[in-house]
Write a structure and sequence with these properties.
By secondary structure, the protein is an alpha/beta fold. It has twelve helices and twelve strands. 44% of the residues lie in helices and 19% in strands. The structure holds beta-D-fructofuranose.
Length: 320
């Protein structure tokens, strides 16, 4: 073989490979697909299990890009590392649900490097992101407050069990609720502890709280897991008798549906998982279409005993 012919083969072969009918499925073209990464705050609690599944299902419909998710297990330092490590592979889009605002460092770097950053559910303090997608936490809390005020006829004492102090939904779920209750001079809010959005932490906190014997008419928890924990503590301490109202946020799990039906929880407000919308936005960004709105709010709904059957029928993918 002459030198000229050998060179020509080297040049022609890869081109011939690209035009074969199987090119789309070949390992080479898969490797060359743009990368969309997702840094999840944690994959342990029910809401995030539904969120991960929704995101994966949506990504499966987009073979034109590579999708990868990693779980930070609730640790901001780990999440910063995950994002920095993702960035070595130059993703086109970074989806991130921050554990808390301390993850801003790696997010800012990713944005400055030219990656489109889509924040999901929790936000950061600064504005180095392309878009945020989630439920409107202030409005969710207002809906919870209006339900409680109506049920208690504008009178009573409410214990508010809080989420993670440095996670943005916590502030909004507190402020929206307090703004509604402030309109009712007969109502008081006791500021409960931050229980990290965790069932067990809320249960232990409630056990200690109940030992003080403070009378309460309602427990408003910043998510359903904590409302369940508080209710379990109440039931252990009061096997009989009238219970206060118990109200949470999320509406993503079968257990909550069952507890609303049986009257163990009085209401919850849906916190829609943003994964499917995030994948849709990412796919558009890859086509060159940046989102028109920076803050993309997903609709939410209050769920009570009256509406729980219809909600469950319309949402078959709840966590078991
Ligand atoms: C899950 C969770 C949800 C809550 C959201 C707030 O980690 O605690 O229950 O709605 O995060 O960011």
């Amino acid at each position: 073989m002459t030198m000229k012919l050998a060179l020509a083969l080297v040049v022609i072969l890869p081109i011939a490979g690209c035009s074969s009918p199987d090119a789309e499925n070949s390992p080479i073209s898969k490797k060359n697909r743009p990368l969309v990464v997702f840094s999840q705050a944690n994959s342990q609690d029910p809401w995030r299990k539904v969120f991960d599944a929704d995101t994966q299902a949506a990504a499966d419909k987009h073979p034109e890009f590579e999708y990868e998710m990693r779980d930070a297990a609730g640790d901001p330092a780990k999440q910063n590392d995950i994002i920095d490590t993702f960035m070595i592979r130059k993703p086109k889009v970074l989806l991130v649900s921050p554990t808390e605002t301390a993850v801003e460092g790696s997010i800012n770097k990713a944005f400055d490097a030219g990656t489109s950053v889509i924040l999901l559910d929790r936000a950061i303090e600064g504005n180095k992101f392309t878009a945020w997608i989630g439920g409107d936490n202030y409005d969710i809390a207002k809906q919870a407050g209006e339900f409680v005020a109506k049920k208690l006829n504008g009178k009573g004492i409410i214990l508010m069990i809080q989420g993670i102090a440095a996670a943005t939904p916590t502030k909004d779920r507190r402020n929206g609720f307090m703004d509604v209750i402030a309109k009712h001079p007969g109502m008081t809010i006791l500021q409960g502890n931050d229980c990290g959005y965790q069932r067990q932490a809320a249960r232990s906190y409630m056990e200690t709280f109940l030992q003080k014997g403070t009378a309460i008419d309602c427990v408003y928890a910043h998510n359903d897991e904590m409302a369940i924990g508080a209710r379990l503590a109440w039931d252990a301490a009061h096997p009989t008798g009238k219970a206060p109202l118990f109200v949470g946020v999320d509406a993503c799990q079968q257990e909550v549906i069952d507890m609303i039906k049986s009257g163990k929880l009085d209401a919850t407000v849906q916190y829609p998982t943003p994964g499917a919308k995030a994948i849709e936005v990412a796919a558009e960004i890859l086509k060159g279409n940046l989102p028109k709105e920076k803050m993309i709010k997903l609709p939410t709904v209050l769920i009570t005993k009256e509406t729980v059957e219809a909600y469950a029928a319309a949402n078959p993918n709840l966590a078991k």
